[in-house]
Amino acid sequence: MSARDLSIPAITLKDIRLGDYTLNTLPLLGRLKENLLREKSSVCIERARYVTEYLKNTPDQESPETRYASAVHFFLSHKKPLFFDDNLLAGTTCAKPFGAPVYPELTGMTIWPELDTISTREKNPILLSDEDAATLNFEIFPYWMERNILETTRKKHGNPKCMQLFERIVFFIASKAGCISHTVPDYSTVLSKGIESIIRTAAEEEKRPATRKLPELDQQIAFYRAVRIAMEGVIAYAGNLRKEALRLSENEMNPEKKENLRKMAQVLEQVPAKPARTFREAVNAVWLIQIAIHAENINMAISPGRLDQVLYPYYRQDMENGRLRLEEAMELVGCLWLKLNDNTNLVPETAEELFGGAGTVPAVTVGGVDEQGSDAVNDLTYIMLRVTELLKTRDPSLNARYHYEKNTASYRNRVAEVITGTRSAPAFLNDVAIVKTLEGQGVSTAHARDYAIIGCVEPGVPGKSYDASSSIMLNLVSAVELALNNGKRPVTGDEQIGPVSGDPASFKRFEDFWGAFTTQLTWLMTEAVALNNLFGATYREIMPSPLLSAFFDMEGPMKKGQDLIFGGAHYNSSGATHIGFADTVDSLNAIEKAVFVDKKVAFPELLSALADNFRGHETLHAWLLHKTPKFGTDDPVAAKNARNLIEFLHHFYQGRTNYRGGRYKAGFWTMTNHAGQGKMSGALPNGRKAYEVFASGITPVSQAAGDLARCFRAIAELPGQCIANGEAVNFKYPSIMNEQEIETMAAAVEAYFRYGGRHVQFNIMSYEDLIQAREHPEQYPDLLVRVSGYSAYFKDLNDAMKEEIITRTAYDVKTGKAVPFPEKHKTMLPFE
Amino acid sequence: MKKGGYAVPNVLSRVLLGFQGRKLARCIESELAENFLSLLLKAMGVAFFLLRDFRKNIVDFEGKYFFKSRDNGITVAAVFKDGEMTVKDTALKDPDVTVTFKDAAKLRDFLLAPKQDILGSMLRQDITINGNLNYLYKFAYMAKHLQLMVTGKA
Amino acid sequence: MKSENLPLIFDIRHFTLDDGPGIRTTVFLKGCPLSCIWCHNPESLSAQKEIAFYDHLCMKCGECVTACPEGAVNPLLKQRIDRNRCTACEVCTEACPTTALKPVGRYYPPDELIQILLKDKIFYDVSKGGVTFSGGEPTLFMDYVRPAMRELKRNAVHIALQTSGMFDLPEFRTKLLPYIDLIFYDLKIFDPEKHKKFTGVDNHRILSNLAILAKESNVEIIPRTPLVPDITDTPENLKQIERFLKALGIPAFQCLAYNSGGDEKRTAIGKSINRSPDAFLLPLKK
Ligand code: SF4
Ligand code: SF4
Questions:
Q1: Beta bridge partners of A578
Q2: If 0-12 CB within 10 Å is exposed, 13-18 middle and 19+ buried, where does residue B11 land?
Q3: Average per-residue pLDDT for chain A
Q4: Can you give the pLDDT at residue A679?
Q5: Where are the alpha helices (DSSP H) in A58-186?
Q6: Cα dist. A267→A88, A270, A338, A557, A737 in Å?
Q7: In whole angstroms, how far apart are CA A765 and each of A423, A456, A708?
Q8: In the structure, how many helices (H) and strands (E) does chain C have?
Q9: CB–CB of A813/A741 below 8 Å?
Q10: For the stretch A373-399, what's the b/e string if a residue is b when 16 or more beta carbons lie within 10 angstroms of its beta carbon?
Q11: Distance between CA B53 and CA B7 in Å, rounded?
Q12: Ligand 2: lining residues by beta carbon, under 6 Å
């Protein structure tokens, strides 16, 4: 089924706002949302228990793929079929209504020290029963002590230097110890064919070895077998759900509930085993596959992608046949949105500082153009926008693609209006620029046009590219500090950590400093890439992804007979992202201007000012703060340093190959790491004081860019082709009052895109609103903010992160000028 | 108060752990931490001996831990094998994990402070870890659990 | 044009929404033939460069005192700068580590100005906006403004002018009018006596220029009256203006809320606050 075969217009809605539909007219959604907000998160050990039990009792098999697939199968077929509420969709990620699953293969064991206290800890407690704690302590964790990704890698390579560096935390984070995930599968194929057809294909391929060579042959056979085993697990789970739905419906007295259960059982008879025939079946199938993927891969940034395109044929056909009413379609979409919120991350208390408050970031992408380059906006696009506007839930993270030549202005304005309504979502993406960037990475034009956002902001091609976009998170500021101190960092004391790059006092020109900086950076990146490749190799041995591979494009893993982790996808890459971009650029600017151009200060004095956190150097501090070039203005020095840095990173990574044969890519989004890393870094030449937050994503430093138009242009003019792993641009408007202001905001975004800007997201909140919300969290239980590529409940964020969001520059939409930060709260600013 | 599902009630455990338990409790709650490590290990030893549920933690567990202060003033090896813990104050060959600490108070805070600042501890090099982190997590869990038993609070 | 012949520009504001349709960039030229006592852009009056001092931003580091070659910075003065000695050389503003000392007015060679304005073109295009010339009084510098307007027009940019109407009409007609799409034309006080009293100049020319322009040109004109309490907002004055405009066939005019925001700026450049009736903020009337 394809959207393009149908000749009727894609927009049949009389009112694209769907203003008549509210949580009052859709009471089911209102009720489910209330439940969701009330629900406390609980640790869910179900998956860990079954997977561990299976692996413990089953000695080595012929291949890692079949061994792991069998463990996943074992879990899925034992997974408890549960119906917690009146949601129209069957299936749950966890055995708890709002669960935090444990993945002991990855970083699950970091909560071991907390088993007694996690339920009552101060920050984001997660409930854990005594019984489950004992199971983790005695049954599950002991098995994994030598076996998780981190320790397997360590043992194999003798605690390599790159790993020790990673464990210092303040240089880079090799996320692969905790996840690969970060991908957008191909839902269209499995919806239209059904899992049974995948099993058939796998079975045929398994038996058709004649054309292949040994030893590849063995591996291919093993892969197809693994796919089959995993897929049968998914079908088993759906079957158990169906039986349970029938059983419950028989006992149910309430006629409405009874009917819903009966309908779910009907749906489950068809999907995901067989092709979806109706919109409801298609939506439920998407959800079941999402659950299945989490049985294998951690619940982090497994993104459904372009659901307005994937689901459209089913919507369209049902609407035409009169089988579906608009409010039913909205309810089903809303139910999916709420289901996507049924799980959260298991974060140990110590990591809250770095990651606190993040959801599981399943990203949904709507709008933009189709593979032919035509306007792809349809009824479902508007339905998804409206449902997002009504529900205002943390997940899914919604992204609106916008092609300024192909999409209409009314779509553009509607997206801006939804942002105003939710005060934070969706993010805006520039189709023209992003398609070009993907093409630059060797992606075909048609595939590039089909891009979707992976986790925060990284573009990938659904089912075609395996991007592991969150492999490396590198702290750029650490390279500045290492260069300033000849390979040492104030936070790590007198230890010679990085290479000796020269005593800055001996530098004659700014280029000398740049040389030292890039020496440190190159060293850090080399170590980070080396470690990522080691981790990648470990995944092949203990945690391949046959299940996820089966939900990739049929031309990829299923054709090559190769698991994703071995390079089975059509396109392969690994993504690095960078923390502290604007602070780094501004520090480079400050050094260039203060030390070399104006000769205002020499390195020894600058270094002692930094060591003293500017105490006793107030005049110098003020001068650095006010009189040196800032990224986000039209200062040419700032533009030059920003560009050079991005190009330097890009060229380094593009020259490195990952364990799957793909290239590395550079991006600039920071989740909450800019707050955490900031809290662990010393004072900087741009005037930022020690232990204060960094600016987020690729956003200019708070209060440094006073003029929105120039700021937009400064970011837009960065070399977008070199930002292949995405970037987060975070802006704030204190308020958007009326239609005219919404239109202005939308027009400004369009202008920003026409200048070349790629991404932008907003929080529509004033400094005062946010300060108030911090002081009275109980009054703002569901205040959502855009962090750096995803949404979070403000109350869940750690203090540093709250401060960063509060101090982000707010611009007056009428004047485009930065609103001055309230005098009373000035100490919150990173440079005060 | 949660106790991980198998601990004996606080009062009883406190009585059972007797003298060593009280000493550890006092050390945890006081400013002075000098003997923290030896007190902790002694109390652990008593607890393993007396409390069957706590002993379950080390049945079938093999692990070699080496603790040392940065100035090498304190060196303690704790070896778990065959359901028993042996403690020696000598070096150890091939430990699973080596924990180097600046001073005993830092080690105590690292393991037991109510708001552990593990990031900070590692950054300031109050504590450095070399080896398999999971062994450390397991030890930290046992220490925390013992703390709950002897003081009644985390 | 040599730099000494260039007029000063005291601000270029990007992304303004209140100076005409769409998203605009507004250029403020320094120098004005009127001196309205309520002026809220006091730095626009003089065509000379001035140095502004903002006390609350000063960290009292003393860099300015040491830097000034004329001995014009006096820390004991509340205004900090002895205006009689100051040559506006900007040495102190360079030295000042904060933004407490700022030059008011900068020279932009015509090419640079054009380049700056055209950089925002996409903002104009997507919002049906454009460029607004304001002041001060832009028509004081027609030879400077003209090439910029011409270049903008060549790039299909919408051009608006804010003027007091005090210009030489024949010159205006040939030099600027052909490029302009919209004129915001200030009509402050109808009565000639009072006009002279509160703005320092006679309004005869202002009225006649408007009358002629309305008749012979089809440029869009929006007359505007700032509502200054007891000076311009009297029923009598407003009625007279309305009658005059009706006779010219101009159906409506804009009343602008007066804001007293000029005080801080006035103090900053060392001018005393000298306003007879107290000013307050009025809601915008149309
Ligand atoms: S502008 Fe020049 S003369 Fe005037 S106060 Fe500053 S330094 Fe002195
Ligand atoms: S240099 Fe600037 S901050 Fe310092 S005393 Fe003068 S005006 Fe104040």
A1: A474
A2: exposed
A3: 94
A4: 85
A5: 64-78, 130-134, 141-144, 149-157, 161-166
A6: 10, 5, 19, 28, 44
A7: 7, 21, 16
A8: 10, 10
A9: yes
A10: bebbbbbbbbbbbbbbbbbbbbbbbbb
A11: 6
A12: C 58-64, 95-96, 98, 100-101
Residue A188, pLDDT > 50, answer yes
Give the mean pLDDT of C5-28. Answer: 93
**Minimal CA separation from A698 to chain B, in Å:** 25
Residue with tokens 């270094």: A607
The C-alpha atoms of residue B123 and residue B127 are separated, in whole angstroms, by 8
Give the three-class secondary structure for A475. strand
Q: In this predicted structure, which of A143-147, A363-367, B120-124 has the lowest mean pLDDT? A: B120-124
d(CA A611, CA A684): 9
**Distance separating alpha carbons of residues C140 and C206, to the nearest angstrom:** 14
Per CB distance under 8 Å, which residues of A are interface residues toward C?
Answer: 618-620, 622-623, 626-627, 707-710, 713, 743-744, 747-748, 750-751, 754-755, 813-817
> By the 8 A CB rule, do A539 and A148 touch?
no
Amino acid at A483: A
**Terminal C-alpha separation, chain C:** 41
Residue A261 CB contacts under 8 Å (≥ 6 apart), including other chains: A83, A245, A246, A248, A249, A252
* CA-to-CA dists, residue A76 to A98, A106, A292, A826, angstroms: 18, 19, 8, 53
Q: Which residues pair with A785 in a beta bridge?
A: A792
**Can you state the angle between helices A510-542 and A149-157, rounded to 10 degrees?**
110
What does the H/E/C string look like for A602-646?
Answer: CHHHHHHHHHCCCCCCHHHHHHHHHHCCCECECCHHHHHHHHHHH
Q: In this predicted model, what pLDDT tens digit does every residue of C184-217 receive, in sequence order?
A: 999 999 999 999 999 999 999 999 999 999 999 9
Judge: A117–B115 Cβ closer than 8 Å, yes or no. no
Q: Does A148 touch chain B if contact means CB atoms closer than 8 Å?
A: yes
Look at residue B119 in the predicted model and tell me its pLDDT: 67
Whether the CB-CB separation of A580 and A479 falls below 8 Å is answered with: no
| Other Cβ atoms closer than 10 A to A239 | 15
User: Which of A103, A107, A110, A112 should be substituted to probe chain B, the one whose Cβ sees the most B Cβ atoms within 10 Å?
Assistant: A112
pLDDT tens digit string along A615-652?
Answer: 999 999 999 999 999 999 999 999 999 999 999 999 99
The first and second tokens of residue A74, run together, are 């074992």
Tokens matching residue C229: 């309490």
pLDDT at C27 exceeding the cut of 70: yes
A765-775: pLDDT as tens digits: 999 999 999 99
Residue C86 to chain A, least CA–CA distance (Å): 23
ipTM confidence score: 0.92
Pick the CATH number of B31-150 from 3.40.20.10, 3.30.230.10, 1.10.760.10, 3.30.1050.10: 3.30.1050.10
Q: How many CA atoms lie within 13 A of A460 on its CB side?
A: 38
pLDDT reading at A142 higher than 90:
yes
Chain B residues whose CB is inside 8 A of the A350 CB are 116-119
Say how many CB pairs under 8 Å bridge A and B. 101
Distances from the Cα of A654 to the Cα of A516, A575, A661, angstroms: 21, 10, 12
pLDDT of C284 strictly over 60: no
d(CA A772, CA A779): 9
Q: What is the pLDDT of residue B13?
A: 62
Give the integer Cα–Cα distance in Å for C130 and C135: 16
> What is the pTM for the complete model shown?
0.94
Q: Taking 80 as the threshold, does the pLDDT of residue C273 lie above it?
A: no
**C-beta neighbour count of A130 within 10 angstroms:** 16
Q: How confident is the model at residue A798 (pLDDT cuts 50, 70, 90)?
A: confident
Other CB atoms closer than 10 Å to residue B34's CB: what's the count? 12
